[in-house]
Amino acid sequence: MALILGIETSTKNCSVSLLDADKVLFFKEESSDQYIHSEKLHVFLEDLFLSSGKAKSSIDAIAVSKGPGSYTGLRIGVSSAKGLCFAFDRPLLSEDSLKILAYQGKSAIDLEEGDLIISVLDARRMEVYCQIFDHGLNSLSKVEAKIIDETSFSDLKANRVHFVGDALEKIEKITLDERFVFHHEIKYPNAKGLVELCGEKYDAQQFEDVAYFEPWYFKDFIAGKPKKLL
Fold first, then answer.
1. Looking at the whole model, is its pTM more than 0.85?
2. For residue range 11-29, what is the model confidence (pLDDT) as tens digits?
3. Is beta strand 13-20 parallel, antiparallel or unpaired with respect to 23-31?
């Protein structure tokens, strides 16, 4: 009966959640193009403890999304999660952001045998981070940074191909494959999906090494140039 705190900040969405055994006691999220993680995350965490009535010391484990995704978002989320682990001597759990997103899709979509679900997150320009799963959420591909063109995903053998994530427009505007279904309402991975997936990992004692754990950026960070010099 573990109490697991979840932090998900891998995209424009900032979210926290608290899982007690198999019941989500608290969930809060907010998304913004301005990447509000640094100002909202700790406010959300305080709301979580106040609303749930749980003390920070009662948490059994902290779960965090490890990426791929936003460099800054991942740094903030992982730093906060590791800080809590060190402060309260608790284990760390993690899950891939693309699997979290696919899990949310599987929970909301009426999938049939032979259907596929593909998580796609924006990687700028016509590139996406993507991963393919079957109807049972088994991974059929490795995480890939893929440049989208007219033939992308058309070679897949499936009855229907369901897409979830924040980069659906990149695929939708250049493909005519009638098997493709785009679920715009399932846009970002969130902490609710994270803690539900990590409940099983806690039971299996699949913990990360807190001291050496790092976010999975997938690609090297490239700093943008300022629009004007100060």
1. yes
2. 999 999 999 988 999 999 9
3. antiparallel
